[in-house]
Amino acid sequence: MGKKRNSKTATEQNGSEEKIDIEAILRARMADFSPSEQNLAAHMLDNVHMLPFETGSSIAQAVGVSEMTVTRFVRGLGFESLRDLKNRLRHSVAEKDSDIDDYMGRFQVRNSRQEALQESLRLDLDAIVKAYALTATDLWDEAAAALAKSRTVYVVGFQASKGLAMDFASRLLWARPNVIFVDNTSGTFGEIIAADPKQSLVVLVDTASYAARGIKLAEKLKSLEMPLIVVTDKFSHWAFAYTRFVFEGHTHVKTFWDSTASLGVILNLMIDTVAIRLGPKAKRNFAAMSDMGNLFGEFVGGSYLRRKD
Length: 309
What we know:
With 309 residues, the protein is of the alpha/beta class. Helix content is 53%, strand content 8%.
């Protein structure tokens, strides 16, 4: 686990009634955890709404560690005990659930799918709220700074996630230059591998089932020490082995396919944060792109830039 531990527990520091964000606590320390601790953190992240009802034994059994390991892990996070964590989580989870009740009350579907679609709406709204919460983290700021200052940004996506990656690359290009979607037509990712690691950055978008090529590319980028940002779902935490910059969205809903709404929100917010960081440079880049679009007759109607101003 981390090298330093606070001398006071989280309850002593913040008061037992103050809400906590266990997801933020775990993500902030993920890189410092041992393998078994990473597995514990992954289980908690995947089951955060059920944690108030878990026991040390049930968590240990699910992860494949001892109950004592669970106890040590929880105390290492700054809580007096698992009971202390659970009590404080109950307060936080109940408060989060109430945030979307108003939206749920407005939604009615009068057919046999009503219950499932209402649950999907709840899950999607909760996922979007969590996606926005990522923007308040230090890790988000670091990733946005890297996206803004890197000379070249390469974007990669596979299979069903390819569309999300292409959309992100196309729209980020309006905020800053030198954004390249790599379709890997050569089969070698040569554009990325030949790039200067100190001047380049890769954004990888992927969802379960994860592409074997993506994991192999991540391994290569780690060996090259080239910065990597991964936007993915929460079904697996494979990406933490290759980069600190992992942004996971909740995608599980009650529809035929998992929802990518939260991933789209994360990617859109990344573009927004980069544009805000670049300020006037982003506006000038947007204007230049708009002029080129008008030159080639790409758009119908007036300038989008003028409407944004």
